[in-house]
Amino acid sequence: MPRIGVYICHCGENIAGAVNVEEVRKYAENLPGVVVARNYLFMCSDPGQELIKQDIRNGLIDRVVVAACTPRTHEPIFRKTVEDGGLNKYLLEMANIRDQDSWPHWHDKEGATEKAKKLVASAVAKAAFLEPLEDRFVEVTRASLVVGGGVAGMFAALDLANMGYKVYLVEKSPSLGGNMAKLDKTFPTNDCSACILTPIMVQVGTHPNIELLTYSEVESVEGSIGNFKVKVRKKQTYIDWDKCTGCGDCVNACPAKVPNEFNEGMDNRKAIYIEFPQAVPKRAVVDIEHCLSCAKRTIGTQPRIHSKTGEPILAPCEKACKTGACDRSREYNPEGEIVELNVGTIIVATGYKVMDKAPFKEYSPQSPNVITAMQLERILSATGPTEGHFHRPSDGEKPETIAFISCVGSRDKRYHTYCSKVCCMYMLKEARLIKEKYPETNIYIFFIDVRTGGKDFEEYYNYCRNLGIKMLRGRVGAVDELPGDRLRVRAYDVDLGAPVELEADLVVLATAIEPAPDLDELGRKLGITCGSEGFLKEMHTKLYPVETPVKGIYIAGCAQGPKDIPESVSQARAASSAAAVPLTLGKVIVEPLISEVNQRKCTGCGTCVQLCPYSAISLVEDKGRSRSKIDEAMCAGCGVCAAACPSGVITLHGFTNAQIHAQIKALAC
Amino acid sequence: MKVGFFVGCNTAFNRPDLEQAVRYAFPALGIELDNLEGQSCCPSWGTMPSVDVVGWCAVGARNHTIAEEKGLDIVTVCGSCYGSLAESKYKMDTHPEIKAQVNEILKDIGREYKGTSNVRLTFYYLYHELGPDKIKEAVKHKLDGLTVALQPGCHTLWPSKVYYDKEEDTFHPRVLKEMCEALGATVGHYTRLIDCCGMGAMRSTDMEKSFKLVEKKLISMKNEVNPDLIITGCSSCLIQLDTAQDLLRSSKKINFEIPVLHFMQVLALCLGADPERVTGLAKTDVSRVVNRILEG
Amino acid sequence: MSSEQAARGVINLSESDSSLVNEIKELGGEELMECIQCAKCAAACPMVLAGFPFFNKRIIQAIFLGLRDALLDDSSIWACQSCNRCTEVCPREVNPFEIIQAMRRVAIREFALPTLSIEGLKSLYDTGHAVYLAGAGNTRVKVGLPEKPPSTVANPDALKELQAVIRKTALADLGIIPMDEPGV
After folding, report:
1. What number does CATH give the domain A355-513?
2. What is the architecture of the domain spanning C3-109?
3. What's the complex ipTM?
4. Which one of A477, B259, C36, C51 has the largest count of C-beta atoms within 10 Å of its C-beta?
5. Which domain of life is it from (chain B) (predicted)?
């Protein structure tokens, strides 16, 4: 007969504020198998843990139930307590009477106390069936994968590479750089974005420990911490990158015109293109969808021969290429190439996307002079469509009056309810850059709340106001198109208490920071989830901000939520440090909470093989019969196989049928 | 084709010439009108909607059920009726608890709201059911050479979520423009196109303040378009723009007069209606522009 | 506190009525608390342009602060044309128009409604039309229409039906207009 000790935590007021702890303790005392029930103000404190250890050492108990907060943060602590006391650490069960009880039922004290009793009874019932289990260790592949080659991904990769680990950096665009490469200057110090980013891109591109996979995307991920098997699809560039020197001759020769993504659609690029002048790697790619196949040189075909000269008839890009990198006879392979990687840890830093202006019809997005702040960023940049000359899109005139509109698509229930966080500062920055260069420009910023929390940000804001940038509190309600490509901005100035109208030459929309496209799909491949706002969810907002519920997978930068550059870089370096821990240890503990099949009784039906989301189960031949085999290293302990097995011969350790049935039965009482 | 005509209050009692225009134009285009016998007020915003949500929907639902029983959609020429009816329908269709309470009330008079009839505004109905091309073919007179300024009207546009017929962009409406262009008019753009004319509750609460809006609107039309005619999509806007000009002139706020007609009046004229019957109650002098239309 | 004070003088927040928020939510303004006072509705509101002391944004803020009397002493809430441009642009899906309607519903429950609204309600009950011009028959005939439209005014049974409906609504409990049973 097991001897169970029950330890109920007050968690200060967190639990005791809603649950009558003493009443629960008295109730627990009388549960079957319970030999002692105690309560304490903070069970996780040293004296609290000591209570448990003493009872174990005194031989009073051999099973422990802790009714307290969440196992997510506290199970490791109490397992260690149990182990230090001298018991197998898996002889512990937790009842979460805080997150699942006192917090949600704060205003129903009686109900919360009753529910706490049920949760404790259920944990006690399970505890009676707990078995000692042994941890396992697996060897770690000392390499890491970083997904995303923006500023966050690059810093994460560099740190790991500098620690001596092999890093694979996967980027979906042809070049590293991400959104930061598009920016003109960066707040709060107004450094030129390209000037500070380019050296980082070069370091990443030339680092001996970093293998760059640009123009590539993650296809699938299998395995678990220490041993992830990742398939990466390298999209076909239609150019031999080993031969390409990035000279740009083919680009000049190409006649096709395609809206230029890098310049936010404000000018055209060619069908064969180099993403931007500072691209790393500086290599050309063919956008096959828009390629005109000049001279009937469809990819994968042999050139026709000129009837008179006997020379092959080549496309202009091929003719221009001096190295033979551009050869349209090469195989047409839209599927690209699959590369398989083995890594111990993964960092996801896929960044963000800025929202388009089109949905905001009240702001007349059909006008070319209504632009997004990212478009303005490109207009201000020396590598942008106007080569840094401050011209408005409709006619190339220099704008005399500019209106910025904040929170476009942010704090907006129709699109994104969150604050995009960086807009206040980037609006001020863009306004300041214009005002410093062209002091005669009239600049108005229409805002709801100016949010400039951050090191040196408030000082920046005041500096901008001193430059004569005018700030108006009140979300703009309408932008009317006026003759002469001008715009009338209409708002209610909250501080004046009056409606205001402004005739402007350019209207800049501070559109929201959105999750990158397909982020949820990438999340699914990795087994990590997105929050309601669409960004990847961290393990714990405060304590584990770069960890995810999947061990060995970490997140950084705007994939987790809107951030500025300083924050993205800090988080990237935190993620690399977290991702290096398992690599440094060389082995990781794998909890024994995994499935085991009783091979003797297995009928070999294969149901579990199909269902296993981790591909951990296979059918093996045994004495002429087919039977399931579970790979311990790959099993994540999800329990799908155990639930589905028609013969009931799969056991999920830590969640056995006997344990779960006992738990349910206790709840039903 | 057949549709239920919801007349409302202002059209029936204030501008029956507009009612007559609808009664002329629809059959002339081959669409039969049902009288929806026994219809009442929509109800208008200052009445039941200002008392109680369920009461508003109940009075609205009684009107809806008259059309539902005949299997017809409702058309109206008045923006307020359009708004109130569409909104009560939207509330009942999206809130089952409101619908249930309304049907509890309707049970006593042997009716049940089902939500099977749509609420349409005349010019949207014609645009979607016939299309500008068919209307172009049907008319006897055209607006060739006439420059017009439009007043689509707030209720024809917002809140777009409650309406069956939708503009692609409710801040840059196109349907009334396309319909007027189909009749041959040159439609001038002015920058206060979607601004409110000041009619309705504002005018009854404070006429002076309400007239500030119509004044601004008329001046924007005059300066930016200088139209021969203002065409409205809503009967309330018709009344405001038509009646305010005289008063604004006598208080020296404006020094011009622009004739004002509802789109259905213009359409009826183009289809050959007797001008006295379909435009006879205009306060602005429409005779010259009417003659030009009849010559066109 | 009068509306004039609300517009110019010191507003004494200690006199605020914290029950107003819930009352508004119960009377149809369910989304009230989503408002973050961004003022986009005010930027689209004709009442602002016309110069009314209270309008969508300000009405909502006054409700938040429980300034019941300030709102009831002023006629602004009755001037809303229900144009719904605010509803169309509101980034918080507050439906400011419905909040104003809800505030009217509060006002009506305290008999703070304009004469015109009482007349409109009475006319609706008596004739089936909020706007009914007794002399309109001649004008109708002049343009070739029957004297009466095919509505409740031409159909006594339909009017009785409508009155039966109205007597089942909240209006009946409020006693704002006489609603005698037919024949009583």
Report:
1. 3.50.50.60
2. Orthogonal Bundle (1.10)
3. 0.95
4. A477
5. Bacteria
